[in-house]
Amino acid sequence: MVSINFEGAKQFYARQPDAAAAQAAFDTLVNGTGAGNDFIGWVDLPVNYDKDEFARIQKAAAKIQADSKALVVIGIGGSYLGARAVVELLKSPNYNALPKSTPDIYFAGNGISSDAVTEILTMIGDRDFSVNVISKSGTTTEPAIAFRIFKAALEKKYGAEGAKGRIYATTDKARGALKTLADREGYESFVVPDNVGGRYSVLTAVGLLPIACCGIDIEALMHGAQAEREDTLRSGVTSAAVQYAMSRQALYADGKNIEILAAYEPAFRFMAEWWKQLYGESEGKDGKGIFPASVEFNADLHSMGQFIQDGPRTLMESVVRFTESRSSLMFPFEEDNADSLNYLAGRKLSEISLVAADAVKEAHITGGVPNIVIEVQRRDEEGFAALVCFFEMACAISGYMSRVNPFNQPGVEEYKKNMFRMLGKPGAK
Question: Is residue 371 included in any domain, yes or no?
């Protein structure tokens, strides 16, 4: 379960958080009466997901684990950020370099870099591999380019027929270029639900197949999401998610239009990238929105700390903390104490980190930066899924409080249109 502490933010409110507006936004979301209500399937997803498809995902993951040393996950935006976030947070940013029985995971199709694609092909080398292509339409430029290249590599290695058994398509249920191709070629297919937008899709097949391939317990993920969802729906305006939305909006009213998401685990980096897409794409429209940024403490304290501490007072800071560490590393004693650190000897590094975090919070509050603390007990499947549910709920409620549609992305569609036109796609305007 997620808990929130906004004692470090209260003194900066221009006006108190608007509980009535938060309640109205909460009701709008759960009753499905707001803008974009055809994309709120993620609210009930933890309890209403397709159990048959879930079992097929587990079976496909087992097959990939058995016949592949590498899996290339092709997608962009919400079609890759969530999966990468959970792999790095629950396994490691160094997952591919660690000894393991599961396949290496490579993410492609999130850019158009010849060097990046070539590098992945080089790292795969002669090893057996499979591809999971994730695209609702199948025509989004970046993943479509990558898929054509990796499909050709599969066909060269295994032949056209052999390649078909190593391609897994996560796409629209009934239409689109990728769905048509998957049906024609006989690829194993999984569904991007019509009522779940990309940035809210990590707990659908979009995220679950690559997540399962690296040995993460996806049943535990769903249990964690179920628990957080139940708590949010039961607690309503007093829940952590709604309180977070209220606090952000109160600070936004005071001119705090940049939110920094900070964490003290390097493994959290891509979780922060997922969060930035979620909040940026959901709230940044109609001339409104809180700009989402992220930092990795303690490292970024020595590069961005000065700006946070003494720069323009337009920042708010939300800090994600895991109260229990996975490991218990003790700081050693040295006789000569040349670095003057013996005062830390015999203490756990995890304990030192939490104290350091408190020191940073105190300094930032003193410097005029409101501070919200988001706590999760453990960095495990349940904790990750609880964070996902918490952030998604808070995001939608915050968006409705701002009177925007949290589920569309007109700016993204404009970029796509321009890209098609300038690249010379037939029929593009």
Answer: yes
Split at pLDDT 50, 70, 90, the class of 414 is confident
Do 327 and 396 lie in one domain? The reply is yes
Considering the domain boundaries, does residue 416 fall inside one?
Answer: no
pTM of the model: 0.95
Domain that holds residue 274: 2-34+221-409
Give catalytic residues, as residue numbers: 281, 302, 416
pLDDT digits (tens, 9 = 90+) for 309-349: 999 999 999 999 999 888 889 999 999 999 999 999 999 98
Total domain count for the chain?
2
Q: Are residues 203 and 269 in the same domain?
A: no
28 and 64 in a single domain? The answer is no
Q: Which residues of 109-143 are buried (b: 16+ CB within 10 A; e: fewer)?
A: bbeeeeeebeebeeebeeeebbbbbbbbbbebebb
Distance CA 22, CA 239 (A): 11
Domain boundary among 193, 216, 239: 216
Report the first-to-last Cα separation within the chain, whole angstroms.
48
